[in-house]
Predict the structure.
Amino acid sequence: MQKISKNQFPFILLAIILVLLIIGGFFDYQISKGIMNQGSLFGTAFQNYGMFPKTLVLFLAGQVVAARGYKAEKKEIGALILILAGLGFALFSAFQCVDGWLYYTYSSLNNVKEGLLLGVANNDGGHPISFPYSLKVGIGLVLWLIGSGLSFKWLSGKSKEQMNYLSVVALAGVAVVFTSDTVVDTMKNLWGRFRPYEIFGSVEGAHYTPWWQINGVNGHKSFPSGHSQIGWLALYLPFFVDRKNLKLQSLLVKITAIFGLLMASSRVIIGAHFLSDVTVGSTITILIIFIASRLMNAKFVEEK
């Protein structure tokens, strides 16, 4: 069997995306109606806890900035600012992640209490979910302390050249996260597409529209998928790996790609998105990461 070259892969990926969009254009409605299950444990697990790649990219970026300040030859005010800013940014990222985990966890617990399906969630507003603020702070601090310790161990032995590279990766990672967030959020508002669970549920006025139809701002945000966009941010993690460690780069690319596919699949199963929603959400992140890699002059897996 002929092996697919790295030059051929982008064209194959583009062809797959186009095929999925064509299928979605004709069968989005039928696919979602056939497989939607808001009681799915698989779908609920990824919905509740699968958005950590965004936090992980930002957390590592903050730790790299802090390490850059710690390793500065001159221990001046600038180095202290880098340390505090990096650690503070990492802490903020941890709190944001825990906030999302607790929101969805308490939402699921509330569903059980009210006799609803486990994965029922109104992603575009609805009844507010409350949870103890102290719980968020406690879990966030524990994760931050553990993560900071592991990061210190990881970065302490890095050379000046490696830290220069990681600094570029950190800054590019922040740009990738916020660019993909901005693009997806803007499109969500502009498209105004109803979600499958709204169409197949009891939401008044909910109706199906194909993915290419722009409905304008109406409070409904199915297209494109934000969870899929965030899930595929995991694909950026291989760039934090030392450029000489090809084996770990390759392994991480495979693991993160599988994670992105699972996240996208889970969103269709849970009824939060159509096939075309997750296809476009995934594509946006993959494209932005690819552009960032070219600007950094780095590959997902470097040549031997």
